[in-house]
Design brief:
270 residues; alpha/beta; Rossmann fold; ProC C-terminal domain-like fold; 2 domains; 8-stranded mixed sheet; 8 strands; elongated; binds NADP nicotinamide-adenine-dinucleotide phosphate
């Protein structure tokens, strides 16, 4: 099976490394990009590279679209007509399968993905949606490719990818903001900058690892570390009094609504 990457930037590089780590051979992968400097980075992995998108897709079974949203229409329209058995996997943010389909032959199998930035470290989570032309085997192939940089969840309704964008696509930034805030507060409590950063970041890592354990959930973990009348309860009482859950609700709704708006800006009917 041959996989062609159109766009050889950050995400393509991570996905290719993930594929190789999960056993794909360099000879099964080709990357295309007009920037030779980008290709030079990836050719160190032993894969084939080309500045010609049409050449990359000619023999491919799977085409991974990893370019910026603004140029997606032009890139797809400049490709030779794809075969009906070629699976297109798009990681392009904000462009739906209807728009992608408008730039591709009718009935093209398309899997649309919403990965997130930790994928660059192999710790991403991706939302996946398949159009009606995608076979079960192609779903499994798409999942295997994205799982090379973390894990994935399928959604059955494409509009749910806007919710995925609001939760996990933008999600790392919410945790970064909380970390920033805690680092500032730690310094206000008298700790130095380096100790504050280390305490906050390592606490985030430890809490995430605990939450990733099977057979547990964040609410149980929180209750387990909150003794009545203790320090944790004192802090959580303040967060609840300030209605943290309402702030989070409003923030995620704003992100989802923005994802819906961006889809209309970059789509084929924009
Ligand atoms: N990075 C993330 O965490 C993340 C998360 C979710 C979704 N995404 C989506 O993934 C896609 C790729 O993101 P990225 O971070 O990998 O971007 P990136 O590093 O900018 O990669 C895009 C690559 O496409 C190349 N390119 C430009 N025109 C091209 C053409 N006509 N044909 C083929 N390649 C072309 C670019 O070259 P030049 O640099 O020379 O223009 C660049 O190397 C984007 O649509 C983004 O929305 C990214």
């Amino acid at each position: 099976m041959t996989i062609a990457f159109i766009g050889a930037g950050n995400m393509a590089g991570s996905l290719i490394r993930g594929l190789q780590a999960s056993g794909y051979l360099p000879g099964e992968i080709v990357a295309a990009d007009p920037a030779q400097s980008q290709l030079d980075v990836l050719s160190t992995l032993g894969i084939a590279t080309t500045t010609d998108n049409a050449r990359a897709v000619a023999e491919a079974d799977i085409i991974v679209l990893a370019v910026k949203p603004q140029i997606t229409g032009d890139v797809l329209q400049s490709l030779p007509a794809l075969r009906a058995d070629q699976l297109v996997i798009s990681i392009v943010a904000g462009i739906d399968t209807r728009s992608l389909g408008d730039w591709l032959p009718d009935q093209q199998p398309i899997v649309r993905c919403m990965p997130n930035t930790p994928a660059l470290l192999g710790a991403g989570i991706t939302g996946l949606y398949a159009n009606a032309s995608v076979s079960d085997a192609q779903c499994a192939q798409a999942e295997a490719i994205l799982n090379g940089v973390g894990s994935s969840v399928w959604v059955s309704d494409e509009s749910q990818l806007d919710a995925v964008t609001a939760v996990s696509g933008s999600g790392p930034a919410y945790y970064f903001l909380l970390m920033e805030s805690m680092i500032e507060s730690a310094q206000a409590l008298g700790l130095d900058a380096q100790a504050s950063r280390q305490l906050v970041v390592e606490t985030a890592r430890g809490a995430a690892l605990m939450a990733c354990e099977p057979d547990t959930d964040p609410a149980t973990l929180r209750r387990n570390v909150t003794s009545p009348g203790g320090t944790t309860e004192a802090a959580l009482n303040v967060m609840q009094a300030e209605n943290l859950s309402h702030i989070v609700d409003r923030a995620l709704l704003a992100a989802k609504q923005r994802a819906e708006t961006l889809a209309t800006e970059f789509g084929s009917k924009a």
